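step 4 of 6: structure.
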Amino acid sequence: VTSLAPDLERLLAEFDARRPAAVARMVSIVENHRPGFDVALGLLHGRMGRARRIGITGPPGAGKSSLTVHVARSYREAGLTVGIVAVDPTSPFTGGALLGDRIRMEAVALDSGVFIRSMATRGSLGGLASATREVADVLDAYGFDRILIETVGVGQSELEVARTADTTVVTLVPESGDAIQALKAGLMEIADIFVVNKADRPGADKLRMEIELMLGLRLGPVLRPVPGHHGVELQEFVNPAKVARAAATADAADQWTPPVVRTVAITGDGTDELIAAVDRHYTYLERSGELRQRRRRRLRERVVEVVQNRMQQRLWEDEGTNAWLETQLPAMEAGERSPFAVADTLLARSADVLSSGRPT
Amino acid sequence: VTSLAPDLERLLAEFDARRPAAVARMVSIVENHRPGFDVALGLLHGRMGRARRIGITGPPGAGKSSLTVHVARSYREAGLTVGIVAVDPTSPFTGGALLGDRIRMEAVALDSGVFIRSMATRGSLGGLASATREVADVLDAYGFDRILIETVGVGQSELEVARTADTTVVTLVPESGDAIQALKAGLMEIADIFVVNKADRPGADKLRMEIELMLGLRLGPVLRPVPGHHGVELQEFVNPAKVARAAATADAADQWTPPVVRTVAITGDGTDELIAAVDRHYTYLERSGELRQRRRRRLRERVVEVVQNRMQQRLWEDEGTNAWLETQLPAMEAGERSPFAVADTLLARSADVLSSGRPT
C-alpha cells in the first residue's frame, strides 16, 4: 500500500463527505496528473461503475453542445445528477460560445446537480482519451448518475474518447456529404444512436435516409466496383429479406440496431426521444451482457494505458536515459545510427528503471 | 546486425536501383508494419534528409487536396520529383473526390515523377503520425525532392502529423469563424505559412486580416478578461511599436513571420506565391539553424516513439503477460484491485521481456 500525502487524505475525506468543492479539486488533480493522482484514482476505483457514460460526438457545428445542455436539463428534471466533460476545442463549454449558447450553458452550470469540466487539447503523453476517462472516473466515483462526454468526432484521439462511453451518440446535421464524411471518419462504426440535429432544416429526411442506407437497413444500395474504372458506381436494389430481418431483430435482446433520432437543438425538440433511445440502449447493454463486456474491455485497455504511461514516465524521467540519448544524436544526424538501433540499445540498458516503480 | 530476410534484401536492391515498383512495395511494408519494416527503415536511415517535407493542413473543406495537386504540378514543371502522403480521411486522394477533383488528381497520379499514397485512419498503437513519418522517410530515402503531407487539421493526431514536416502550410477558407476555430484547434501555433484559399470568395480580405490580427501583426486587439464576467471582451488598440518591429524583422535570418498567401484552388492562382513562400521559409530554416534543430528534435521524438512501440510490442506479444492480465480482470471488476495496482505488478514481472529484444 502506497502512503498517502496528508492533503490528499484530507481531500479524499471531503470527497467522501460529498463536498462539491472536493470534486472540482479532485478533477483538477487527476486531469493534470498532479502527484498522487494515480493513488487517488486507485482508491476511488471500487466506487466506480454506477454512472452511465454517454458520449455525444459528431463533426464541428453539429450542435453537440446545445444537445448536451438539453439532455443534461432533462436528466435534472428527472432528479438525476449530471457530470459533463467537454473535449471539443470548438465547444461553447470551452469558451467559444455564441451569446445564446452561453446563456443556456450558464443556466445549466449554475445548477448544483451539474458539474461541467471542459478539457483543453493536450499532448500525446498521457493522452486526451486517457485524461477524459480519468475525469469521468472521478465523477463516477463521486456519484453522478449520468456522465455526458462531448467530443468533436474528427480525428483519431477523439474517436478514442468516444470509446470510453457506454453509449455513443453520433450527431449529424443536414448538410451535403455529412453522412459520407462521418462514414469516412469512422463515426458510423462507433455509433450506438444517431441524431439528425437541426432536423427542421431542409435535407433532414435525406440525411436520415442516408444514415439508414449506410446501416444497411433500407434499400441497401451497394457500392459495386466497376471494372476498368477508378471510381465506384452506385447501384440501388431493394433487399426485402434484409429489411424484414432488421425489423424483426430490432427489439431482440442480443442485437442492437442504431436508431436515428431527429432533434432541433435550438428548441430542444426530440430530446425526450433521444433520452428514451439512450435508456433502451442501456437496457440492451445490460440484458445482452454487452455492458459487462464493454466494461471488461475498458478495464483491460485501462491497464494497457497505465502500463504505457508508467513505462514512458519511468524511462524519460530518468536523467541518465535522457543524457545518453543526447550523446546518440550526432551519429543519428550523420546517418550512421538509426533510431531503431538507438532505441534497442536504450531499452537494453533501462531494464531496471522500467520494472522498479518508485512511489509517486 | 540483424539478419535480413532474402525477399527484403531483394526489395532493397530494387529500391536502390530506383525501380518504381520497389518504392510502392516498401511503402506498403512500412505503412503496415510488416515483418522487417524496422530493419528496412534502419538501413534506409542514412539516405534520408535530402527531401523537403511540406505539410498542408487545415479544416475539412478548405481545398487542401486541390492545393496539393497544384503545388505538385508546379514542382514537376520545375523538374522536381514529388511524393504525396494524404492522411485526410475526407480527402479526394482517399476516394471521396468530386469528378473534377478526381480528374485533376489522376493527371498528377499518372506522372511517373509523382508518388501518391493515401493513408487510412488507424488505431493508436503505432499511430498515425508515426506511420505517416515512416512513409515520408521511405519516399525521402528513395530520392523524392519534395514530400507533400496532406492532413486534416482537426484533432490531436493530425497536429502531430503536421509536426513531422519542415514547413507547415495552414489552409483556411473565408467562412465565418474559421480563423477562431483554427486558433482553438491549435493550428495557429504550428503554421509556418497561411493560405487563404478560395480567395475569390467574399470574406477573403476579412479572413486575411483576422489571421494577421491573431499573429499580432496589425492592430493587435487584446483579449482582456473582464472581472465579474464569465466571458472575455475584445478591446482593440493599435500597437505601432509591435507593427514596426514585425516589419523590420520579417526578413531577418533569425526570425520568421508567417506570411498569408491568397490562392484560388480551382484555377491554381497563387500557387507560385505559395511555392516562393515555402522556399523562403526553407532558406530561413537553413540560415537560422532552425532546420537542424527541427530535425534533431524529430530524431529525438523518433527514438521516443520507437522505444514506446517496442515496449508495447514486447509486452503485449508476450503470451504470459496477456494470460496474467486476464486473471486480474475479476478482481478489477469487483473493485478490489485498481488498474494502477495491476499495472505496477505487471511491470515488475516483465522486466526481462521489456529489455531483451527478439529479432523482428
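step 5 of 6: annotate
 - The beta strands of chain B are 52-58, 82-86, 114-118, 146-152, 167-172, 193-196, 222-225, 232-235, 260-262.
 - Confidence is low (pLDDT under 50) at residues 95-100, 218-244 of chain B.
step 6 of 6: archive
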